[in-house]
Design a protein that fits this description.
The protein is mainly alpha-helical and 96 residues long. It has helices spanning 3-28, 39-42, 45-54, 61-74, 80-94. Helix 1 (3-28) packs parallel to helix 4 (61-74) and helix 4 runs antiparallel to helix 5 (80-94). It starts with a helix and ends with a helix.
Amino acid sequence: LKPQDVVVLAGVLADLARRELSMAQASTGLSGSSAPPPPFLARICPALAAHLLQNLERLQTEELVCALEALSCGLRYQDDYLADRFVEALKPRLVP
């Protein structure tokens, strides 16, 4: 996959995770967004993150931000190394 396609895939998977969460909330009557993503989505996250890390330099600033948002907020993927690498890739682009 091209790096840009991986960013789109991360966004689609994040949307799917949000829909799964809302369906689970509707069926149980519970609210809140602290539930982890479904296991089938959680298993994809490390490979997705690894592919993005290999291609940070090829992504545009907006794509970096979208990918980080999809992984961290949508899929609730937490990885300090990933966050640090994204920060280092974004820093020269956002702070002149």
